[in-house]
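Batch 3, record 17
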Amino acid sequence: MEALSSLAFGFSVAFTPFNLALALAGAALGTAIGALPGIGPINAIVLLLPLCFSLQLPPESALILLAGIYYGSGYGGRISSILLNIPGDPGLVMTTLDGYPLAQQGRGAAALALSGIGSFVGGTLTVVLLTFLAVPIARLAVSFGPAEYVALMVLAFALLATMGQGRTAKTWAAICLGLLGAMIGVDGGSGVERFTFGSLELLGGIDFTTLTIGLFAVSEILVVAEGMRSGSVSNLGAGSHLKLRELVACFPAMLRATGIGFFLGVLPGTGAAVASALAYTAEKRVSDRDGTFGKGDMRGLAAPETADNAAQTASMVPMLALGIPGSGTTAVMLGALLMYSITPGPLLFTQRPEIAWGLIASMYIGNIMLLVLNLPLVGLFARLLLVPNWILFPGVLGLSFAGVYAATNSTFELLLATGIGIVAYAMRKIGIPLIPMLIAFVLARLLEDNIRRALSLSDGDVLVLVSSPVAILFWVLAALTFLVPMLAPRLGRRIRAMSDSEAS
Amino acid sequence: MNAAGSSGDRIAGALFLLVGIGAIWHAWSLDVPFAADPVGPKVFPMVVGAILAIAGAAILLRPDRVEWERGDYGRVILVAVASLVYPLVLDPLGFVPATTLLCFACAKAFRGPTLGSAIASVALAGSFLLLIDILLGLPLPRGPLGI
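Prediction for the assembled complex:
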């Protein structure tokens, strides 16, 4: 029971008063920001990222804080999905299908309680699986050499391009742009400047906080400014509270959804949006005998909520065990580790156990904390929905820029963030996905270093990249992922339909 | 109002193609006096540039017809211009005045009432200074007014 003793060590890290306070602060802040209409989890974490860095917390504390913000914002996002019918991120679209009708029927409070419990179940069961699976996976990965890593990352990109949202060619373009963006600056191996165009400010490369603020916060505000979304707040409701009978009826749905969420979350590139869509569709097929789904069926709310949280937690498995993020938020956390000069990956568990296990332990704590925080306080958070747009978005913009300045001390970075934001806005308009670009940006260094290391070992012989059985397996899987939708268009369409979700 | 068209995709595809070729050219023309490994800094950007160019060509040749809602671009431009001006005035004016102007422009873009927007902007700018500079101890630029 090595995992249990490691977990106990993790709890000893996470249970220090300072880290507990950070987890609580993160959860509360995350919930508050996530509850603001239209601000999803990735925006919440991005908004607070510069401040986390500038405070110079030790890495494990920074991760615990970021993780707290992450779960918190997921909970908060449910509030605007259910009461306002405005999902803050793609993973929450399915939540609105049965959540909003429930709120309209005056059962908003019951719906929020159910979604909180569903998330708790999905999150906690997945953390248990993570506890026992992360180390075996990492142990397998320790034997990977540079060639295997290159193949694995290419496989991750192929999965992103095929399974993710948006057209395959557009996702590949986004991945390439992310990789190129990460190359800006001085190349470590040779001291040569790449893509700096003579600019002194670009010598150190694009700052990670600048990139994330530009990509997500600035572009989001521009998108909202263009076509203002608005909705009327449903009454939180004096309607009847969640009954135990209703909750028990949802448990089978939650368990099924946890399984779906876990498996899809572990795969790089699929993530929570696909998981919640698939869980909803599956649950509808299994349980919708009276045609109540979409009209406020509790199970139709519990399934996507549970799957969403399970997938979000499961996406920590490849991030921690392999150093490869599967979702936007884990990419941000990985970027955070890189800024501390910590290379995530299989060795993290042996070399920096306080980070890996501290984070895992804090996930248990975070899930419980959120349930405790949210069941009584949900009414308070729901009030945040009443903040008018003309206060909310100026505030988000001002805080974003203040955060970038605090992290970088440079007005050039502010210009860069705005420039990136305008480009990202244009990309969103024509359907180029941003998350693959972020993941590619984070992985670029690792990918290039591994290619160069592999080829140094072989003295420039390219065949080294396909020299081991494991590497060949990854390349074959990547090729299949890439080719199958082309050779079998019907299958490709089905995969795409799943990820675009049946709601749209 | 909805407009359907493939011009957005064509422009994006052409741009990606150009950026991809530009990346290859830039990497090709790098002057590398010394590299610690046999690959050097040129190969990776060239491969990535090539993939980008191929993806760009694919989008250019087979553009999707994207339906997009035509929104209020005036508001987008107002927010974008305010954000571009902000870094230029931040150091000369100081954090609170500059941020107040930014927030005010943005609030007007979101159709806030003038007086309310003004009050909210001052309050937001002031509370950010309080939170980040004074409470968290991360220095923000102070202008001639000391704020």
